[in-house]
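In this supplementary section we document a worked example of the pipeline. Step one takes a protein sequence of length 443 as its only input; no multiple sequence alignment statistics are reported here. Step two produces a three-dimensional model, which step three serialises into structure tokens for compact storage. The input and output of this example are shown verbatim.
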Amino acid sequence: MTEMEWPACLNEFEKLLFRLDSPRVVIDNAVCSSTTLVKVDVARKHGILLEAVQVITDLNLSIKKAYISSDGRWFMDVFHVTDLNGNKLNDENVISYMKQSLGSIHYMRSCSYEGVTALELTGTDRVGLLSEVCAVLADLNCSVVDAKLWTHNGRIASLIYVKDCDSGCQIEDSQRIRRIESKLRPVLKGDNDIRGAKTTVSMAVTHTARRLHQMMFDDRDYERTPSTSSLKDDIPDVSVQNWNERGYSVVNVQCKDRPKLLFDVVCTLTDMEYVVFHATVDTDGRHAYLEFYIKHSDGTPISSDAERQRVVQCIQAAIQRRASQGVRLELYALDRPCLLANVTRTFRENGLNITRAEISTTGDTAINIFYVTDVEGYTPGSKTIDEVRERIGSSHLKVKELPLVYKQEVERNEPSIKVGGAMLLSLGSLVRKNLYNLGLIKS
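The serialised model returned by step three reads:
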């Protein structure tokens, strides 16, 4: 942050404190042969770890290992990162942007969405729901600029950014906003909604993934059980135990590795008002093992079995919300009115359920990513996918596999990581391990 960006009310002493508290960032490609090392030393405050992880994951980078340790009022964070193909970072523009962003995480930053109206939607998931929502928006002369949709345990949460089709401007008329809400609410509620649906129109824009986590958490999606056997087989192994001698609660997580996993877990812990004091992350290409030493914001550990079980359920839900289910379809086409409504209607007419969606426009091009299953929640047949691609245009709609780094079979001589309950390490051992990885002490 430059002096021109400082609030006018700050005196010189306060500006000095800002300089002293500014994060120290080092990005090094020489230390490790397979990953880029990112070191961040930053004054500790609630949510600062989430800010750092958010910067890295928003660049679509993979965190292969991480070591986080808090010493007094400072955090020492070390991340081993690659791109989604498992390569070290060689793009100087990416490295420079990441260093600049990490160096300013102490300061509030707004999201890049401007001139749009944000629709926050929650309700009961069903086949064709997104198609119906898009059809309503098209009838109301609303153009979808960007959208994210998650489904989990029979519930749906979506953030949709729209503008007026004719003017291309943000929708601000209160009467029109009420009409949008009134038209969408019954669509989201459906015929068998026992939980209720919510439709909120907002001018404020937050970080989309974090807001989706908050919406599904408020909707209490974590209290329900998976409806298909394939989901039950993929439930993350999460355990929570108290280390009474040190006053920590220790959270251990073992699950399949995937993009943005660390962000999802840290986001949930942060929004539940827990502070992460120490943590380690390790991945082997297929699985991830995460360990967090946490306390409440008032410095106390988890106090009851009910709270412990709630933490387990919430972390499991946070991991599963963004898990990839079904077939990934990518649409690249010239943006035009009703494009999204027509595409999603084709999915519905062919019995495809959208489990996750990422909608965006760049210039005149629509870039849409869909994860689809059949009506039972399983991978749809290739014949159905081919028919859908033919109707939409096979040159525009393509089946996309996950990046190589997330589907590779890793064969190692050492045994795979097992949780088997929380293993309480001594604080001295944990800190020594982190200091070694920070390069502050020798082995």
